[in-house]
Protein: D-alanyl-D-alanine carboxypeptidase/D-alanyl-D-alanine-endopeptidase
Amino acid sequence: MPDDPQWPTEDDDAESVAAASQSTVQVNRPSVDQPTMRFPLAAVLSAPSTQEPLRSSPVRSSPNATGPGQAAPGVPTAGSGAPGGPSGEAAGGKSHGAIGPEVGQPRAVPVRVEPKNDRTRVVPRPEQKTTELSVPPGKTARVDQLPHLEQSWFDKPVKSDRQQHQQQSRPEQTRRVDQLQGQAPPRQEPQRQEPQRQEPQRQEPQRQEPQRQEPQRQEPERQEPERHEPQRHEPQRHEPQRHEPQRQEPQRAEPARPVPPPRQESRDLPVTGYEEEPEDRLAEEPRKSRKPLFAVLSLLVVAALAGATIYAVDEFGGTKAIETRPPAAPANVQPLVKAATAGAPAPTPAGVKQALTGPAGNSALGTLTGSVIDPASGTALWQQGDTTPATPASSLKILTAAAALLSLEKTDRLSTKVVQGAEPGTVVIVGGGDPTISGAPGRSVYPGAATLDDLVGQVKAKGAVTKVQFDLSRYAGEALGPQWESVDIAGGSVAPIVPFMLDGGRIDQTNVNGARTGSPAQAAADVFAQRIGAPGATAGAAPAGAQVLGEIKSASIEQLVDNMMQISDNVLTEAIAREIAIKTGNEPSFAGGVKAVRDVLSKNGFDLTGANFVDGSGLSATNKIPAKLLTDVLTTAAKPTLDDARTAKLRPLLTALPVAGGSGTLAGRYGGTAAPGKGWVRAKTGTLTGVNALAGMVVDVDGRVLVFSFMSASNRNPETEVRPALDVLAAALRGCGCS
Structure:
């Protein structure tokens, strides 16, 4: 059974008495079985609101009626003569009685009220029944008359505990009719009646909603609306729909749609004095357009960019940072380095002597010999024991490099080959005199060096190898030079001179002064055999005319000369001396190399009087040469013109010299009082026990090129005293200006 209805209070009945006395308008249809309907005259004739047309108030049948044609106690039925009826007698209650048709009679359907000029007419729909109904004007209200500040009586419905529990169990969101009113345009809708039915079916009235698009709603459930009334008049209330009742709404243009049966919980939808909003409206708020959101976001992005721009302008220089300025005038460049020409003021011997007197008198230099020459004029500017033979140490490499440039083609390369051995699967490595082959690519101290992996790859491509041999017949004589000390091998100064080795015999390929191996050929051949997949290598001879299986070549002679001068590599120097010997028809040995160097220099007009050396690297302490021989070779290389054929060949010798404070063996020198010579002095160093030498060239402050050679025999500390003293001596020539 449904819950008992909630009847109005005495205050509500009192207000309805006064409202019932007002005039009403009766609308009749010319039909015997059609009842009439009455409306308050004031409500009908009142002008419609400018905000929303007048709506009719829905009145529903009450489930509390006792039967057909009967009314609930205290509730009058229209036309019955009961109090509150059309006779105008005292009202006994609100119109909540049974007003629907009796069983077997046609159902009453709503009518449509249409205002026309100053009159109002009620247009019945075809095949519809009406019921005479007295609607007090106090019960009729319009949405636009509802206040929005005061909470109405409808906001506080009186519900039983069961209804409250069922209302809380609904998951749908409660929406208010006044909220939906602000979203929908004005419209008119007819009255509805809800007779009792057993079969759940629903029909909705036809709505006229211009300029409105209603979104599809999925949930038919409606929530209790929240309304506001201007005054606490008697409200009309309806009991929630139960399982047994079924309401029928006026026929719409579209066919009736089957609706799922109501849920088990009760539906508490109190009437607010207005026609109920369609369920599809109350189920969910219409989707709002996202255009305003996008517009707001766009404005925020623009504002952020503007703020960032203002911050950047203020933070990084203000308006000056964004000003467009004309390009600056070209800078007046005054290069510090000037072209060295013969037109520069020529220094005088007196001026050079005066400049060198102090530095040359340093006691740390011990016995000092040397000379200074102007290559442009050939004038000797300073001389001190320049013809006296002295130990040159590594400065002797200047003679070997000059002989190589004068006798060998600058583009010549040293070739290492692998040929087919006398037995199947046997290969022979033929040493070609290149000590710079790199065993670890990218780790060599020799720029442009060939790689062992290249050679191995070429041989592998020709077939399997089962045996490896190496041929060292290119060189002759002893592997170590006269007076060489074996400790120099472990010290990294030298390795046995053989025509096949890796990285100059170094154990650590990247360490210029690191320890070297005492058997460089065997070590290199074993690495080759390992990489090609054969057992350890052995010494052997290559068959005459054997097929070449692989070949690699070194960097050019000119580059090799440059490299040996920069890092003062003794092994590479001795290999080049042997190549000079081979080129000149001499034995490729220490003695043959020395003879070849002397022959080439003498042939090119250099006076070797007093020169006595046994190797090409200057490692032997028995080597003796005069300082003048070194300055003579450098003077030829530094002549301002190329009229002399020797000058053109010897020019690379100057660029091969290390730069003071910048490269090679002079990279860490020229500090302190010798700093003025940094970058201006280019010279070859020489160091042995008790011997230090420096020979090269310098450009003075007047732009004149001067060549020099200094050899010192001193037992003083070479690192802290002797070498710095030699550097100051050469730097003095830089600041000479001795014209």
